[in-house]
Design a protein that fits this description.
With about 140 residues, this protein is an alpha/beta fold. The chain contains four helices and four strands, in the order E-H-E-H-H-E-E-H.
Length: about 140
């Protein structure tokens, strides 16, 4: 059992929002937080517009693949953040659940995905401050 917090991001296809959120959290928090992502009905590939939008800020998610949401993934996470998947995420006592209302990037071009990417970054920065702030110098 790890003593660092763990976060699971869940959206329907695990192809856009949850992939970008997981990448931002890994990028900004480093190894201070365990990161997972999954989908209630995973797609076949990560949204190319999400891949391009993240590449623009120096984060490569081109090697990621959508993963199926499992009970074990929820059980292993301290915080479960849903993004438009409704009631598909199993609920366990003692877990913290957040629902981030974000526009779905599916079928949109990179210009439409950029503001979603940037909104996710802002949410992630607040999440890091809450879960694992930088130690004082």
């Amino acid at each position: 059992m790890s003593d660092k917090p763990s976060v699971l991001f869940v959206c329907v296809h695990n192809a856009g929002r949850s992939q970008m959120a997981a990448a931002w959290l890994s990028h900004l928090a480093g190894d201070r937080i365990e990161v997972r992502s999954a989908g209630s009905a995973p797609g076949t590939e990560v949204n190319p517009a999400a891949v391009e939008a993240m590449a623009e800020v120096g984060i490569d998610i081109s090697d990621q693949t959508p993963k199926f949401l499992t009970v074990d993934a929820v059980r292993a996470s301290d915080v479960c953040i849903t993004m438009g998947c409704g009631d598909a995420c199993p609920v366990f006592p003692g877990k913290r659940y957040l629902d981030w209302k974000l526009e779905d990037p599916a079928g949109q071009g990179v210009a439409a995905v950029r503001p979603i990417r940037d909104e996710i970054k802002s949410l992630i920065e607040h999440l890091i401050e809450d879960l694992a702030p930088e130690p004082a110098a």
